[in-house]
């Protein structure tokens, strides 16, 4: 897994220029592969020798090392120096290790140690895996056979089910975060990596309220569930959506088109896969979380049944009740993100009110504000899109340009929204269409058609992605903030939903520029 590839398809070991997330100091430009690394050859915490750098991601770099006492290979993730000064980020990093180490599942990477060095650099130690992440696999091999995807998807679903029971939502499931290795003659044995973006239900147990107040939309474009883009309450089903997107990517080489407000499955490029798998993906990728699998366990069950040829249970009413564990509800409010446990106690209360049956069909958690478990009221999303092609037996994938309706203003709060982190996580997207975001900077709106700063950033960061002429389009909302879902990358008349778009959307959303309200921008980039 690399932060190199924003849609999870890039190489695993390198840090190319298009990789905004991976370089240690983005303002200083990407880290050169041959740059000296003072950690190499050193010994961490008196027992971990740092042998070579494997790559880097949003918050840290990963090194291959050796446990000197046990003479055993390990991998160490070390927080980036620029984040080291930020106690909040370091806290998240340690939290990542602590929570991931508690999941203990065959398909979750094992965390064996974590801590801080003498100079305050946070690190954690993992089992070192031999293989490659799924982004590398799909880049090299192209689309995978559906049987392989079902096998891979089931393992990831089981890992997620274990994490969700533990109160952890991964929030950044993508090919780059799923490592493929050979075990017991299985060449597609999967370990899920990187719970760095996961938020923990039990954060408050550690007295870490800041974990709930990032105010940023975390994830990777293309894998982010629609409710997060909308700024609605969200829960563990964001992982189910992301896993659906991951399987779609593995099956077709492309991400599913984002179609906010549309549940129609006809645009999925899945003609070559069995109807049962198509149905599974449609359900996993449902726009409305209530129409998705209620649990990762249920998704894993259908994948298992499909592999065994015993059919799938796609009737939502046939799903098992929600897991009894502390499933997570992430709620966006004026203070940022907050978390609620859908505890059995809550279920009992609901039962006492005589409506358990109603909710058990739709929800696994009951957020305090806008329940994602309940059917979403049809939202008047202003989908500005060309007329959809007429229904056809196997329609080609259609990318729908989106203009998200700015969500309703947040409820009044006595407290002002928290300040944005000094350096957002590389995969953090300022949810400009979301209600609780900070007010747009009172910058001088750039004249339409000359977004020079963004052009520079995209040129620098997405240089390798644009090996061809590409036109970028994006739209500003009524407040002059970029609408993430509006970004399109066009090559000729074809809309791309891959590296170009995801790299561009990341750069655009990070730019924090004020745009001309309501303006649609079109910008051409020449290859090279
Ligand atoms: N336990 C491990 N064993 C072997 N290689 C690993 C291990 N963990 C990570 N790697 C590799 O290290 C590199 C960097 O991983 P890292 O988690 O920093 O990337 P990332 O997924 O982009 O991070 P982030 O999600 O924080 O942006 C990747 O090539 C990944 O495959």
UniProtKB/TrEMBL annotation:
Top-level lineage group: Bacteria
Region (Disordered): 1-37, 387-454
Membrane-spanning parts: 337-359
CDD domains: STKc_PknB_like (cd14014)
InterPro entries: Kinase-like_dom_sf, Prot_kinase_dom, Protein_kinase_ATP_BS
Binding site for ATP: 77
Coiled-coil stretches noted in the UniProt entry, renumbered to this chain: none
A Pfam family: Pkinase
Transmembrane recorded as keyword: yes
Domain Protein kinase, chain residue ranges per copy: 48-306
Protein name stated in the entry: Serine/threonine protein kinase
Organism: Nannocystis pusilla
């Amino acid at each position: 897994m690399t932060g190199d590839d924003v849609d999870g398809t890039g190489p695993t070991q390198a840090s190319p220029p298009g990789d905004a997330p991976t370089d240690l100091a983005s303002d200083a430009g990407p880290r050169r592969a041959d740059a000296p690394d003072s950690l190499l050859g050193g010994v961490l915490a008196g027992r971990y020798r740092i042998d070579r750098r494997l790559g880097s991601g949003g918050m840290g770099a990963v090194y291959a090392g050796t446990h000197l006492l046990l003479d055993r290979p390990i991998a160490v993730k070390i927080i980036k120096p620029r984040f080291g000064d930020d106690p909040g980020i370091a806290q998240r990093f340690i939290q990542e290790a602590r929570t991931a180490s508690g999941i203990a599942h065959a398909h979750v990477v094992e965390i064996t140690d974590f801590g801080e060095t003498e100079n305050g650099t946070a690190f954690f130690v993992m089992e070192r895996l031999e293989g490659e992440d799924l982004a590398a696999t799909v880049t090299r091999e192209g689309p995978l056979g559906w049987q392989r995807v079902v096998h891979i998807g089931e393992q990831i679903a089981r890992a997620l089910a274990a994490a969700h029971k533990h109160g952890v939502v991964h929030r950044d499931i993508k090919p780059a975060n799923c490592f493929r290795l050979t075990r017991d003659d299985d060449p597609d044995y999967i370990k899920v990596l990187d719970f760095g973006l996961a938020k923990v239900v039990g954060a408050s147990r550690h007295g870490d309220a800041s974990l709930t107040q990032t105010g940023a939309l975390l994830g990777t474009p293309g894998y982010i569930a629609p409710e997060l883009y909308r700024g609605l309450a969200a829960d563990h089903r964001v992982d189910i959506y992301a896993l659906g997107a991951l399987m779609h990517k593995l099956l077709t080489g492309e991400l599913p088109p984002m179609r906010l407000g549309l549940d129609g499955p006809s645009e999925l490029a899945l003609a070559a896969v069995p109807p049962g798998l198509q149905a599974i993906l449609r359900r996993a990728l449902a726009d409305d979380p209530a129409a998705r699998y209620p649990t990762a366990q249920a998704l894993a069950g259908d994948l298992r049944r499909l592999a065994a040829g015993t059919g799938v249970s796609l009737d939502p009413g046939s799903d098992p009740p929600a897991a009894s564990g502390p499933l997570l509800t992430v709620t966006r409010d004026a203070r940022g993100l907050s978390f609620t446990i859908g505890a059995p106690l809550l279920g009992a209360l609901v039962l006492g009110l005589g409506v358990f049956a109603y909710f058990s069909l739709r929800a696994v958690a009951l957020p305090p504000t806008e329940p994602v478990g309940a059917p979403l009221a049809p939202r008047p999303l202003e989908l500005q899109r060309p007329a959809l092609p007429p229904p056809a037996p196997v329609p080609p994938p259609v990318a729908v340009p989106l203009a998200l309706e700015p969500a309703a203003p947040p409820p009044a709060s006595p407290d002002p929204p928290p300040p944005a982190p000094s350096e957002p996580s590389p995969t953090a997207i300022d949810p400009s269409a979301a209600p609780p975001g900070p007010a747009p900077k009172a910058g001088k709106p750039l004249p339409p058609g000359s977004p020079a700063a963004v052009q520079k950033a995209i040129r620098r960061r997405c240089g390798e992605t644009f090996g061809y002429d590409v036109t970028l389009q994006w739209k500003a909302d009524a407040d002059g903030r970029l609408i993430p879902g509006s970004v399109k990358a066009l090559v000729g008349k074809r809309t791309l939903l891959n590296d170009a778009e995801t790299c561009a959307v990341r750069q655009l959303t990070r730019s924090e520029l004020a745009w001309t309200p309501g303006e649609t921008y079109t910008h051409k980039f020449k290859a090279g």
